[in-house]
Amino acid sequence: MPDRYYSEYIRSVIRTVPDWPEQGVMFRDVTTLFKDKKAFRYLIDAFVQRYYDHGIDAVAGVDARGFILGAPIAYELNTSFIPVRKKGKLPFDTVEESYELEYGSATVELHTDALSKGQRVLLIDDLIATGGTMLAAAKLIQRLGADVVEAAAIIDLPDLGGSAKLKAQGIEVYSICQFDGA
Q1: Which residue in 52, 65, 87, 143 is deepest, having the highest Cβ count within 10 Å?
Q2: How many angstroms separate the CA atoms of 31 and 127, rounded?
Q3: What is the CATH number of the domain that holds 133?
Q4: 3-state DSSP assignment of residue 157
């Protein structure tokens, strides 16, 4: 965890929107965090400080908010940035992984030449909820022969079980803050 002050400050600028997109859901809106220049700097700095000495070769950001986080973190760590895209968005040869959503399924892709065997990859997104997207992205990274150092996010919703699923697959998990409940 980053310094408690920074973690609490970051948490305090995340807007909670009740009953969106459906009744009973407490949506954690990180756009308020992204627009707050102080909080955004604290956020990026917290991730950079955590991973500075981890020997990270690449940062893989999950479409789309993982791009917002992953690019500046990769820049600061002097590594490459790898976009994990939704199906049909990459123009070259890809590998894909499907996962279940609450109502249906989705698929993420990586270019087949995005990573090399043995590379150490930080996987990042804004939120870990049920873990499906992060787990699918991690499987793609591993399929290309790279190693997931950690799955990181701004927010973990531990009640939804995603971080537990990732840990059960041997993937370390890190988040800046947690929110209980949906």
Answers
A1: 65
A2: 12
A3: 3.40.50.2020
A4: coil
Question: What is the C-alpha to C-alpha distance for residues 82 and 90, in angstroms, rounded to an integer?
Answer: 12
Altogether, the residues listed in the chain come to a count of: 182
Tens-digit pLDDT profile for residues 25-48: 999 999 999 999 999 999 999 999
DSSP assignment string, 53-65: TTT--EEEEETTH
Pairing relationship of beta strands 26-29 and 15-18 according to DSSP bridges: antiparallel
Q: What is the 3-state composition of the chain as percent helix, strand, coil, each rounded to the nearest 5?
A: 35, 35, 30
Q: Which residues contact 114 (CB under 8 A, 6 or more apart)?
A: 60, 82, 144
Beta-bridged to residue 175, according to DSSP, are: 153
- Nearest Cα residue to 160 out of 26, 11, 4, 55: 26
Classify residue 111: in a domain, yes or no.
yes
- Residue at 16 is within a domain: no
DSSP code of residue 46: H
* Beta bridge mates, 174: 152
* 0.90 exceeded by pTM: yes
Tokens of 106: 């989705």
